[in-house]
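Section 5: illustrative case.
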């Protein structure tokens, strides 16, 4: 357990986990609890992060409402919340930029764990890293968490799975791995040589033959720090496009459930 938390907060976390377990809702715990599981790092947390598919969120919210939680869809692209008082639970279906999306395989691969006395599951290290590679804002940067997960899970980390998860965004993974290499220079072998060769060869090829039609991707990293590129310099806003596609998908998924009303309300506001 990541540090001792107030009993009121621990009780809320247990209540949520027990309710979802009782209804056999497929989810995986992430955040500080998953980080502790894979690295041993203890970190105080005010919230409980639960990863699940968008379809599962549509099923989970009514269950939590029936348990007396106040629920809302904060951002239909990736986030819903359930809370009582000052403590809350985040239901997360992907990253806010919409390019990393939670799929059923994320839940299927989750590792058994005990959280606040409840037998449950936490995200596997590969999915945990994937969930953090785009958290690179001025106010929050998860590069250290990624480095710690790679360091803490050697040699069992599944690099083929990680490459599958990041897909076309392999350069962001390489960025994280270069930080790992800088931080742990004596442990470069924790990342297999084949992965280093693959990523560095891809990079060399891209640099040798740059695509003049390649689109600006800064907004996918941080839409605030790269706002000037979009708003004043007229470069592409891939964030808006990716989020638009994801909104269409989540609307279709949830339109037949009670959660659809929440999505519609947030869109209209």
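Designed sequence:
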């Amino acid at each position: 357990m990541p540090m001792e938390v107030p009993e009121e907060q621990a009780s809320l976390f247990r209540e949520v986990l027990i309710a979802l377990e009782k209804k056999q809702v497929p989810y995986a715990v992430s955040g500080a609890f998953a980080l502790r599981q894979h690295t041993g790092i203890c970190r105080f947390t005010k919230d409980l992060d639960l990863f699940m598919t968008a379809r599962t969120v549509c099923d989970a919210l009514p269950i939590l409402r029936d348990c007396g939680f106040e629920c809302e869809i904060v951002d239909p692209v990736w986030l819903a919340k359930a809370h009582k008082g000052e403590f809350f639970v985040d239901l997360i279906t992907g990253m806010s930029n919409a390019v990393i999306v939670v799929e059923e395989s994320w839940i299927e691969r989750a590792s058994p764990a005990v959280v606040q006395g409840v037998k449950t599951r936490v995200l596997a290290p590969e999915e945990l890293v994937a969930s953090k590679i785009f958290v690179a804002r001025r106010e929050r940067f998860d590069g250290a968490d990624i480095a710690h997960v790679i360091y803490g899970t050697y040699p069992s980390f599944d690099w083929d799975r990680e490459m599958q998860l990041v897909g076309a965004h392999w350069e962001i993974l390489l960025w994280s791995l270069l930080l790992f290499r800088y931080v742990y220079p004596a442990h470069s072998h924790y990342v297999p040589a084949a992965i280093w060769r693959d990523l560095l060869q891809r990079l060399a090829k891209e640099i040798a033959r740059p695509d003049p039609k390649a689109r600006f991707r800064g907004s996918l990293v941080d839409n605030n720090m790269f706002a000037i590129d979009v708003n004043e310099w007229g470069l592409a806003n891939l964030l808006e496009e990716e989020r638009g596609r994801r909104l269409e998908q989540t609307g279709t998924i949830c339109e037949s459930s009670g959660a659809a009303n929440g999505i519609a309300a947030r869109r209209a506001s």
